[in-house]
Amino acid sequence: MVAHVSGAVARPGLVTLPRSARVADAVTQAGGALPDADLDAVNLARSISDEEAITVPCQGDRAAATLIDINRAPRAQLISLAGIGEVTAGRIIESREGAPFTSTDELVSRRLLSVRAYEVIRNLVTVHP
After folding, report:
1. pLDDT computed for residue 64 by the predictor
2. Residue 99's pLDDT is what?
3. 68-69 and 52-56: which strand pairing?
4. Taking Cα atoms as reference points, which of 54, 25, 46 lies closest to residue 103?
5. Is residue 75 within 8 Å of residue 93, measured between CB atoms?
6. What is the mean pLDDT of residues 30-49?
7. Residue 40 in contact with residue 88, Cβ under 8 Å?
8. Is 22 left (phi over 0), alpha (psi -120 to 50) or beta?
9. Helix and strand tally (H, E) in the chain?
10. pLDDT of residue 21
11. pLDDT tens, 68-111?
């Protein structure tokens, strides 16, 4: 599979990885993180999918480093994400009240977002039980 790695890595661009690859593997294939990379802002253990875009932020890049917890975020914070409006935010809140999310991938499996919409925000969201 192929992923696009950008940001604070030595060789940003496309990397080819096996299907079992993790974000850490993609960063390594891109030459590794630069000294100013904020690796605490990236879930290095997360499995990746084909055609994924991975951004490694620099330290101090607050916008990229702040993850939105879809189990706790208020409506306004959910709406701040690209592609999520009032209706979708309401559906996310209603869904999490029924059963908390255990993975951000559930936004797709619960049919709250399309795969394409999820790919846009995937690196901006997280879940905590």
Report:
1. 46
2. 95
3. unpaired
4. 46
5. yes
6. 87
7. no
8. beta
9. 6, 5
10. 94
11. 899 998 988 898 888 899 999 999 999 999 999 999 999 999 99
Q: Is the pLDDT of residue 25 over 90?
A: yes
Domain ranges of the chain: 2-59, 67-126
Nearest to 79, CA basis, from 63, 90, 64, 67: 90
Cα separation, 31 vs 103, in Å, equals: 28
Say if domain 67-126 classifies as CATH 3.20.10.10.
Answer: no
CA 98 from centre of chain:
23
Q: At 73, list the tokens.
A: 């975020």
Would you list the DSSP string of 27-81?
HHHTT-B-TTB-GGGS-TT-B--TTEEEEEPBTT-HHHH--EETTT--HHHHHTS
Q: Which residue has the higher pLDDT, 122 or 18?
A: 18
Rounded Cα distance, 61 and 92, in Å: 27
pLDDT of amino acid 129:
65
Q: What is the pLDDT of residue 15?
A: 96
CA distances to 10, 13, 84 from 87, in Å: 40, 35, 8
